[in-house]
Amino acid sequence: MTVNPIISEKPFDFFWFIPTHGDGSYLGSEQQQRPPEFGYFKEIAQAVDRLGFPGVLLPTGQSCEDSWITATGLAAHTERLKYLVALRPGVVSPVFAARQTAALDRLSNGRLLLNVVVGGNPTELAGDGVFLPHDERYAQADEFLKIWRALVSGEQVNFDGKYYRVENGRLDLLPVQERPPLYFGGSSDAGQDLAAEQVDMYLTWGEPPALVAEKIASARRKAALKGRKLRFGIRLHFIVRETEEEAWAAADRLISRITDAQIENAQARFLKEMDSVGQRRMAELHGGRRDRLLVGPNLWAGVGLVRGGAGTALVGTPDQVADRIREYQDIGIDTVIGSGYPHLEEAYRVAELLFPKFGIGSRRIKPREDIANEFSVGFHGAERLQASS
């Protein structure tokens, strides 16, 4: 008797990640490392487009290839995949960003999504010419987005604010979409205030469900006071294997070459150099200790020992990981932005092992049951031979 797997009744989007800063099999090691090359990005994008992922996130920062240029190149080599690229208030002007938005949305035929990144590292921001303190960066972003939203909606803009002044600004060529959606992650009060006022999707890194629920409740309240509703998404790594033992062995292997000195240096940078509330919350989950990496059922913080930003992974069998995702769904999450090392291979594992638990389809051709080969057991050839004898 064949037992059908339990399929989640709650639909959600499962995005993947383009590692524009490089990829590899071991964190903290140059061995089996893959450099940030466009050819490799294209392999991942085409694979996830074929596997049924609806979109990909491209990161931003000094160590990354530019997300806009990379997405433009990848859009020409994919069919359905959407691209979540960084909108950087303070780094570029809102009018220039609006023109970029319209151009890439047209080039991709409406496959552009925008990730508003205010920035959480004053040292890196200073290198980009941004010197505002934490809360002021969000005030500047609020002005930026008001100008940007009006321009991409086809309005003529006259604006005189604290950070920007625009006279008779306009776009002669508009996006394909009425307005590309805005995604945003910010754990501070100032960040949540910006989300409540301006964005469509509020993102969180992979904290334990109880902490995520508190964050979502706070953001939802702030949005309601503005007469708005938010959608919610989560950024997580994945290590999914057929058995629990295989999954945890893969997790241990991923961090097996990280030294204590690397952990100490990374944690000092996260806590002392950065003013990101979300990054502090990530670091505090484990405190830089290898013996505190299990921060919830199947929720493992090993990636965050040396990686900034998203530092947790769901580790386990397809059933275990699916159960954890459903817990996040129950508190309001409807979008997952996943990743895994190496990103090409992990995309296949997630699609093949986890997607069936949620009824997420694949565009791959399945072997016919009446054909015998190394991936199926059929008798087509034998039957034809008997018929001819």
Automatic annotation (TrEMBL):
Residues 13-334 form the Luciferase-like domain. InterPro entries: Alkanesulphonate_mOase_FMN-dep, Luciferase-like_dom, Luciferase-like_sf, SsuD_RutA_monooxygenase. It catalyses: an alkanesulfonate + FMNH2 + O2 = an aldehyde + FMN + sulfite + H2O + 2 H(+). GO terms for molecular function: alkanesulfonate monooxygenase activity. Its EC number is 1.14.14.5. The keyword Membrane does not apply. Keywords: Flavoprotein, FMN, Monooxygenase, Oxidoreductase. The keyword Flavoprotein applies. One of its GO terms (biological process) is alkanesulfonate catabolic process. Catalyzes the desulfonation of aliphatic sulfonates. Belongs to the SsuD family. PANTHER family: ALKANESULFONATE MONOOXYGENASE (PTHR42847), ALKANESULFONATE MONOOXYGENASE-RELATED (PTHR42847:SF4). This is Alkanesulfonate monooxygenase. It comes from Mesorhizobium zhangyense.
